[in-house]
Fold:
Amino acid sequence: MKKTTTPKLELPFTFHLPAFRQVNITLVGVGGTGSHIASGLASLALELEERGIPTEITFIDPDCVEQKNVGRQLFAPAEVGTFKALAVAKRLNAVYSLMTGASCRAIDRRDTFVVAGALNIVIGAVDNFAARKLIAQKVDAAKGNLFWIDAGNEYSNGQVLIGNCSSHAVFKKGLGLGLSHHLPAPHVVYPDLIQATKRKAKMIKKKKQELSCAELAAEGLQGLFVNRMAAAWALAMLSDLLLLRELKYFGVAFDLEWGGVRTYRLDRATLEEVFAVA
Structure:
């Protein structure tokens, strides 16, 4: 007689976003991906304001607009020579009557990205380990009070992730209860976001200066629309978080060349895989 096995009961898991009355968003990097994210943030801010939720947006980027950025990034010829963060802030403030802020410098240890009493979100649209590592440290220090959306890409592929927790102990506790307001932080899902692998380290050493997104695209080393795709995914996740106050997934990895997408579903099995919870 054939032995029968009882199917394993899949316990539910629910992500709970605490109530919030104010939103604080910091966009780090206003270039290839960031400039496209910025325009979407304006739409979200207007929607939140209509719902009675004050929204503060700050753009951070030390770079200036160059001619090669026009067309590939959301900048006009008249903005060449101006700081990217300032150019985007001025444009959105003029068109939508917003009060976005701009910081024309690189992030450093002074930045916390946290406003007391607000739902705090930092969006990383950067292409270097140092910036991501600093953001990761701030997320760790905030102990769940800072959501990090990281958008990164190569020639035709990329990944977008959202999370606010890197502590296995904290996350395991929430997973056991089946209800949590924590999501695995981007550097938990992809550790190499903040740790240079040997292969990447050799590539960086070979090139004294990293090429910008515009230079990569111009040399055929980056697709023209891969940044826009990363931006679209980031805004879709942020919209679900802020407007619907729920998420069905916390990350995607996409490939435009083959049309493939891996979705990191917000279920117990995927979370256990990511956090390696025993």
Observations:
- The CA atoms of residues 136 and 166 lie 9 Å apart.
- The radius of gyration is 20 Å.
- The mean pLDDT is 87.
- The longest strand covers residues 147-153.
